[in-house]
Specification:
The structure is a single chain. The chain is an alpha+beta fold and 378 residues long. Helices cover 23% and strands 33% of the residues. The chain contains nine helices and 20 strands. The chain has a six-stranded mixed β-sheet, sandwiched between helices. It has a five-stranded antiparallel β-sheet with strand order 13-12-11-14-20. Strand 11 and strand 12 form a beta hairpin. Bound molecules: adenosine-5'-triphosphate.
Length: 378
């Protein structure tokens, strides 16, 4: 097991800066997920840790040892790729033991380590098969087994589940979490799938454009996104954003006016923003309630139901906000009657469940929400 420390890491491909200064501490034994949109540099960073890419600038320590320039085979890491990269002419057992054979580990020990890894992954009955006689999920387990037998200090996973169908992805996700509990080894996992990130990561690192947007537990990132990017990245459908201007603030409750004219309250400390400042109101689809328009007393955002999607457990209603171009997504409990298309409604929400972002995209702090963060995560 080992910690991983990145300091001031930059990487250019020619004139193109793809990693723009990364500082990150990964504690020993943690499961850390790198997540972000395509092209944000997360795979490049993983490959830098693995020693498959040079850096332009910066420092890397694995287990407290400066590791840039150290040969990949000497870094104590094992990497599992999206393409399983198994040797087709070798049996599962030979595939799993191949790196040990190259390292001249005695035969009996190789057989022993392969057998133990195969038991952990429940593929002991497949050891004599060739890869072509395996399903995609089984091949992926062999690829993971090949990493386990090397007893690495750090596992690196680069989108290992993307070639599996949805059901198998879900099952393998659960197995990876179990594997991490059993081995208690540091694992760094790259994905663009927010469900994988939320379910596997003890710590999630959200990347965008070669930079880190936020680091936190799944709970922290979902409940307390630092900015518009993180707020919009995690959650499906994503958080609704509505342009607004600040009317005033009292006792950490801000009042904002939407471009369409509606005035609503948000639990946010807007004392650093001027009255009239442009802000963005953010509300997650599950925090909105559809009310009849005559319920207007308590305030709300008037609109018209433009589209209804019945998904079984939930129904999604998309509401066209009055006087604004935006459609707002609302998650309605599947047990409730579906709202009618074309119905006029008021969108209501609790001030504590909404967010306010300044003109620079940063979230304004909210005392009430912070209090809901549990002390110990995971
Ligand atoms: N060998 C290379 N030469 C030049 N540019 C590269 C090279 N490898 C990656 N890039 C560029 O670096 C950027 C980051 O790529 P990277 O693969 O790290 O992104 P990613 O976040 O992992 O995306 P994806 O999820 O699509 O794999 C991209 O713009 C990519 O085009």
């Amino acid at each position: 097991m080992a910690s991983v420390r990145l300091h001031g890491i930059k990487k250019n491909y020619g004139d193109n800066p793809v990693i723009k200064g990364i500082d990150l501490d990964i504690e020993d034994g943690r499961f850390v997920v790198f997540v972000g949109p395509s092209g944000c540099g997360k795979s490049t960073l993983l490959r830098i840790i693995a020693g498959l890419e040079d850096v332009t600038e910066g420092e890397l320590e694995i287990g407290g040892v400066p590791s840039l320039g150290v040969d990949p085979s000497k870094r104590g890491i094992a990497m599992v790729f999206q393409s399983y990269a198994l040797y087709p002419h070798m049996t599962v057992a030979d595939n799993m033991g191949f790196a040990l054979k190259l390292a001249k580990v005695p035969k009996e020990e190789i057989a022993d380590r392969v057998r133990r890894a195969a038991e952990i992954l429940q593929i002991a009955h497949l050891l004599e098969r060739k890869p072509k006689a395996l399903s995609g999920g089984q091949r992926q387990r062999v690829a993971i087994g090949r990493a386990i037998v090397r007893k690495p200090e750090v596992f690196l996973f680069d989108e290992p589940l993307s070639n599996l169908d949805a059901a198998l992805r879900a099952q393998t996700r659960v197995e990876l979490a179990r594997l991490h509990r059993e081995l208690a080894t540091t694992m760094i996992y790259v994905t663009h799938d927010q469900v994988e990130a939320m379910t596997l990561g003890q710590k999630i690192v959200v990347f965008n454009g070669g930079r880190i947007e936020q680091v936190g537990t799944p709970f922290e990132l979902y409940e307390r996104p630092a900015n518009l990017f993180v707020a919009g990245f995690l959650g499906s459908p994503r958080m609704n954003f509505l342009e607004a201007s600040l009317v005033g603030e009292r006792g950490a409750i801000a009042t904002v006016r939407l471009a369409g004219g509606a005035q609503v309250e948000v639990a946010a400390d807007a004392t650093n923003a001027a009255v009239g400042a442009k802000v963005t109101l953010g509300v997650r689809p599950e925090h909105l309630r559809l009310q009849p328009p005559e319920a207007g007393e308590g305030g709300g955002i008037p609109g018209t139901v433009g589209l209804v999607e019945y998904l079984g457990d939930v129904t999604l209603a998309y509401v066209q906000v009055e006087g604004m171009p935006e459609m707002v997504a609302v998650k309605c409990n599947g047990g409730q009657p579906a709202p009618a298309m074309g119905a006029r409604v008021l969108l209501a929400f609790e001030p504590q469940q909404a967010y306010l972002f300044g003109a620079d995209g940063a979230a304004m702090p909210a005392r009430e929400r912070s209090a809901r963060i549990p002390a110990a995560a995971y």
